[in-house]
């Protein structure tokens, strides 16, 4: 028996952090040890199982990719245990902007994945009451150049003739351009989306959630057999999905195969005094600060009445514990300067700073997510490396991984999907062929989602 170990200790935290908005959203009550839902889900299954028994899958990672994977696996009938070392959506999945775009990845290797996932977001919103549960809404997206004004400069210096600029954007702006419409761009509150999806997975499909640190994978005869947590708990499994985000490099087995680095991104969340004045316009800025180089921050008003501002990214070492991540003071200060330069509604005294934060985006060297079965280890899958598009691409990634995991009895040839990046590209690009046909049907939630995997073609209904 082979034992494959993780590398770093992580503290146990509560499952969810408090959310002030959307008070009607039910909290999922889970202890620091575990919550078991539907004991019948623990029935064993392997390649020799009797028909009708449930396949046991352990998903490691409580971010958007892991939660989406657990959701679609359980919806398709698997017995799923989700293992999270700290708290669900505690990192990038809780601190991201939640921006969704249909066609912004066109021309690249994840074009089809993004288009499929954008439509799945719309479908999930109808299924889960997204507008009320987690702030899903279409919105208009603008590109604007903003110049920082001096301390004595008055607000309301918007250039004349720029009628497309929203009235609340009253800083020194120019060159507005529409880069997304309500048909092609949308948003979610990422932490609330992740929580809502997991709540549904637990309550409706019986997912079990365990808070604990992944210590080992036990492999027998080339196939994963169980997951060992810090403290000694063993979870038997037929398949394991590793969705470890920027912590992928902390797991020695994966770090030896590919590099996933962490890009530290900063953000602030503001609560303006008059949230009703803020219209649903996402802003992608070319910001020119006094005495500094131009930068590209982003501004996302949310239906909660908050305004999210992000930017100031740099590659840094990822700490072992997500709770250790804090923002750099200079980066946070610059984002505040961006806010007050964009709008008088976002200046000190007119808006309360609700959060100053940072998170690490999982990035690969070539910008392509790593999705597939680990070579030489049957039943072990990986899904990571989505960079800034993790929230957008979470649903389609989860659906694709669920398809891959649940087809083990079909003797599919998946060797080398992770090691050969071209196979991953085939997986992602092939989704586009089906999306063009089913994009309208997806809205009605009874659709066929086709994904061509490495040397095989799968068609499954969900």
TrEMBL record:
UniProt biased composition (Low complexity): 149-167
GO CC aspect terms: cytoplasm
GO molecular function: oxidoreductase activity
Tree of life domain: Eukaryota
Entry's transmembrane regions: 425-451
Keywords attached to this entry: Membrane, Oxidoreductase, Transmembrane, Transmembrane helix
Domain FAD dependent oxidoreductase: 56-404
Pfam families according to UniProt: DAO
Stretches for region Disordered: 145-174
InterPro entries: FAD-dep_OxRdtase, FAD/NAD-bd_sf
PANTHER family recorded: OXIDOREDUCTASE TDA3-RELATED, SARCOSINE DEHYDROGENASE-RELATED
Protein name in the entry: FAD dependent oxidoreductase domain-containing protein
């Amino acid at each position: 028996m082979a034992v494959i170990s993780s590398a770093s200790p992580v503290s146990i935290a509560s499952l969810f952090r408090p959310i002030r908005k959307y008070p009607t959203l039910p909290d999922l009550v889970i202890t620091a040890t575990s919550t078991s839902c539907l004991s019948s889900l623990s029935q064993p299954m392997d390649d020799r199982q009797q028909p009708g028994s449930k396949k046991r899958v352990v998903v490691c990672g409580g971010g958007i990719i892991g939660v989406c994977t657990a959701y679609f696996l359980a919806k398709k009938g698997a017995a799923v245990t989700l293992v999270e070392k700290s708290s669900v959506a505690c990192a990038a999945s809780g601190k991201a902007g939640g921006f969704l775009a249909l066609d912004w990845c066109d021309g690249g290797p994840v074009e089809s994945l993004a288009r499929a996932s954008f439509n799945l977001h719309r479908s999930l919103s109808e299924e889960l009451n997204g507008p009320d549960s987690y702030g899903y809404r279409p919105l208009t997206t603008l590109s604007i150049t903003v110049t920082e004004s001096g301390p004595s400069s008055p607000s309301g210096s918007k250039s004349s003739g720029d009628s497309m600029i929203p009235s609340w954007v009253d800083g020194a702006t120019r060159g507005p351009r529409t880069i997304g419409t309500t048909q092609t761009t949308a948003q979610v509150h990422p932490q609330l989306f992740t929580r809502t999806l997991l709540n549904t997975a637990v309550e409706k499909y019986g997912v079990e959630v365990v808070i604990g640190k992944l210590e080992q994978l036990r492999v027998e005869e080339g196939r994963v057999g169980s997951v060992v947590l810090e403290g000694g708990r063993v979870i038997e499994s037929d398949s394991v999905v590793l969705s470890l985000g920027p912590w992928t490099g902390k797991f020695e087995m994966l770090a030896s195969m590919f590099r996933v680095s962490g890009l530290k991104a900063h953000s602030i969340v503001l609560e303006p005094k008059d949230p009703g004045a803020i219209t649903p316009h996402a802003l992608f800025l070319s910001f020119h600060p006094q005495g500094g180089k131009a930068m590209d921050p982003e501004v996302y008003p949310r239906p909660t009445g908050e305004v999210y501002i992000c930017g100031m990214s740099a590659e840094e070492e990822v700490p072992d514990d997500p709770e250790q991540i804090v923002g750099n003071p200079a980066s946070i200060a610059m984002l505040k300067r961006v806010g007050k330069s964009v709008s008088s509604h976002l200046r000190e005294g007119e808006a309360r700073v609700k959060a100053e934060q940072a998170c690490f985006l999982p990035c690969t060297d070539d910008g392509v997510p790593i999705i597939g079965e680990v070579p030489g280890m049957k039943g072990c899958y990986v899904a990571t490396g989505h960079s800034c598009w993790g929230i957008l691409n979470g649903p389609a990634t989860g659906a694709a991984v669920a398809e891959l995991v649940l087809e083990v009895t079909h003797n599919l040839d998946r060797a080398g999907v992770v090691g050969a990046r071209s196979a991953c590209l085939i997986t992602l690009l092939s989704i586009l062929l089906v999306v063009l046909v089913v994009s309208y049907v997806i809205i009605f939630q009874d659709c066929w989602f086709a994904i061509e995997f490495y040397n095989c073609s799968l068609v499954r209904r969900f």
